[in-house]
Amino acid sequence: MDAFTKHTGIVVPLDRANVDTDCIIPKQFLRKVDRQGFGKHLFHELRYTDYDGTIENPDFILNQEPYRKASILLGRENFGCGSSREHAPWALADFGFRCIIAPSFADIFYNNCAKIGILLVKLSSPEINELFGLVQKDKGAQFTVDLEKNIVIASNKKEFAFTIDKFKRDCLLKGLDQIGWTMQYEKEIATFENKLKTDKPWLN
Q1: Residue 17 falls within a domain, yes or no?
Q2: How far apart are CA 92 and CA 43, in angstroms?
Q3: How far from chain centre, in Å, is Cα 24?
Q4: Residue 35 and residue 25: Cα distance in Å, rounded?
Q5: What was the pLDDT predicted at 88?
Q6: Quick one: pLDDT at residue 133?
Q7: What angle do the packed helices 166-174 and 107-115 form, to 10 degrees?
Q8: pTM score, two decimals?
């Protein structure tokens, strides 16, 4: 996966709480196991007025400029609740999102995002309200999210500090999923296995 160090992008405000994974990508699109091609189905029932996804809903914010090119999503509490489907983060990533900022996230969704390189930033509700105010006044506002410094730099240059689990932070900074992280220690693993064969041959 791509490393996340610092990212600047257009922020799209999705002003609704409890956005669940079925809203992010409905069940009828969960037919593939690779991660590509899900972006066109992202928020399907909000983006389209027909089942096949050929008629856009002009009132939905992702169908409006400049938000078609947004890469940072600003949300409300409990984002990503519902089922544990991995396709929800896949759809967000395939659309082009690198970061989601909200007051809280569902645990499984949070972990699934980190595994594919999407940074989830938790800020307090008052801070989120302040950011919504900025973005709603300045359509197309851009934020910078700096994972090396653990700060969000808003369009008015104000900085918002955030915390993140150290292991997830290290993986994101290096562009490693959990398998990639383990493979950093391939030589040490091989040395341990060879020693184990010598010390305890009955295990082979």
Answers
A1: yes
A2: 9
A3: 12
A4: 13
A5: 96
A6: 97
A7: 30
A8: 0.90
Closest to 120 measured CA to CA, from 131, 108, 129: 108
Rounded (5°) CA angle 117-120-122: 160
Asked if residue 200 belongs to a domain, the reply is no
What range does the domain containing 36 cover?
A: 6-176
Q: Considering the domain boundaries, does residue 186 fall inside one?
A: no
CATH number at residue 22: 3.20.19.10
Q: What is the DSSP string of 105-158?
A: B-HHHHHHHHHTT-EEEE--HHHHHHHHHHHHHSTT-EEEEETTTTEEE-TTS-
What parts of the chain have a pLDDT lower than 70?
A: 181
Distances 93 to 14, 113, 132, 154, 185 between C-alpha atoms, Å: 16, 9, 22, 22, 28
3 state SS of 180: helix
Tokens of 85: 């489907």
How many separate domains does the chain show?
Answer: 1
| Dihedral (Cα; 137, 139, 140, 145), 10-degree rounding | 30
pLDDT at 9: 98
Domain annotation covers residue 96: yes
pLDDT digits (tens, 9 = 90+) for 77-119: 999 999 888 999 999 999 999 999 999 999 999 999 999 999 9
